[in-house]
Each structure stands twice: as C-alpha cells, then as structure tokens.
Amino acid sequence: MEQQVNWHEYWSRPGTPGFHEEKVNKYLGKYLQRFDLKPDDEIFVPLCGKAVDMAWLAQRGFKVVGVELSEKAVRAFFDESGFDFELEQYASFKLFRSPQVTIYNGNFIHLAALELANCKLVYDRASMVAIEAQNRASYCRHMMAIVPPATPMLVIVLEYEQQAMTGPPFSVPVDEVESYYADNYRLVELESEELIEKEPRWRSRGLESFRDSALMLLPKIRPTRQPGV
C-alpha cells in the first residue's frame, strides 16, 4: 500500500484525530455478543490508534491485539488505560505487550499470519475509513491473508460526499466493503444511522449527510462457532 496520510504528523497535532472516540463505540457494545466469543478469545484491532475500545474489551476478559503506525498513539493508549506494558523489538515492530493488550507499533502491511494465528474476531472501527481509496483493495487482501480464514469481522464504516470533504476519515460505502470481501465473506448490515443532526461539526464542513454503518462479515468457511445472524 502506498501511504499518503502522514500519521506520525497527524497524531502530533493538538488534540486527537477527529474520528477518535472518547467512549466505547456504540456498535461494539451492542453487537459484540453476536459473535459468540469466549473468555480469553483474541480480538484483532487494526490501525487501532489509542482506541478506548481496546481497554473495554480487555476488561471483559478478551485478549486484544492491535497494530498502529504511530508510537505516540500507542503510548497514549497505555498512559490513558493505566495498563502496564513491556517494550521489545520484534521484527520491524516495536512491541508493546501487557497481559491484556498487545500492540505492534509499525506498518500494518508488515504484520504476518503468525502474529494473528489465534484471532477469533477482527474489529475494524477506524481502520478502513483511514485508508485512501486507492489502497483499500490491497488493505483487504492483506487482511484476508493474515487472519485465519474462519475469522468473522465487525466493521464500522462512514459514508458521505467525499468531494465535499477530504479525509481522513474517508467515505467508504457499504457496497465497496462488500466488493473487497465478497469472495471470502458474506456481509450482513447490522445497523446504519444518519449522524448529521447529532454531530453538526460535519455539517459545518459542508456535508449534507454523514452516515455510519455497522457490518458483520461472516466467513464462507464456517468457523467452529458460527456467529449468530
């Protein structure tokens, strides 16, 4: 993937990126149970930033594995969550490891299947919407190459008029997600909501609509425990 957004610079700006959420994502809390996970199951959070969702998942007994390019974001996560960690060098990554959460600090494209061999769910809340359009197909190909083939996904995307506002976050229509994953996954649209009235900051940037959608991607290779539909 040819990266264009400078994420090191992005995380160095005052405040935090505009699509970082200060509380647990509404769709994660509502739909996680649909995936029939067990204690200690491993959840992969790509391009995780400092997402509070990771701490929430860890507090509920899951193992969380993230990957994030910005070291500043990774350190902010551990500072804000209060989790102790050990730091080591692992291949091309700085590896931040705690009993609950492990984050590979480096480029997603260098992550291999070995690191995700125990993954039971991919939770993509702010990853695909952070990828430029020309890179999304290769992102999805790499995702399918590194997660076990029976791994379901919970994917959150945003949709708006891309010409009216530059990302990130970028507009990613639901049918675009389906086009990338159709060979290996069946897409179920769980919920979609118009946010333009709830979050007027997007209207102030020239948008007439700003919609988020929660998608469940079910592998066509059936896992031992099939998530409920």
Describe the fold and architecture.
- With 229 residues, the chain is of the alpha/beta class.
- It has a single domain (7-219), classed as Vaccinia Virus protein VP39 (Rossmann fold), CATH 3.40.50.150.
- The chain has six helices and nine strands.
- The protein has helices at residues 7-12, 26-31, 52-59, 71-81, 136-146, 174-181, and strands at 42-46, 63-68, 86-90, 93-97, 101-105, 119-124, 153-159, 185-194, 211-219.
- Helix 5 (136-146) links the parallel strand 6 and strand 7.
- The two termini are 33 Å apart.
List the helices and strands and how they pair.
Blueprint: H1 7-12, H2 26-31, E1 42-46, H3 52-59, E2 63-68, H4 71-81, E3 86-90, E4 93-97, E5 101-105, E6 119-124, H5 136-146, E7 153-159, H6 174-181, E8 185-194, E9 211-219
Parallel strand pairs: 1-2, 1-6, 2-5, 6-7
Antiparallel strand pairs: 3-4, 4-5, 7-9, 8-9
Give a short overview.
With 229 residues, the chain is an alpha/beta fold. It is built from six helices and nine strands.
SSE succession: HHEHEHEEEEHEHEE
* Class by alpha and beta content: alpha/beta
Q: List unreliable stretches of 5+ residues.
A: none
Figure out the total of helices: 6
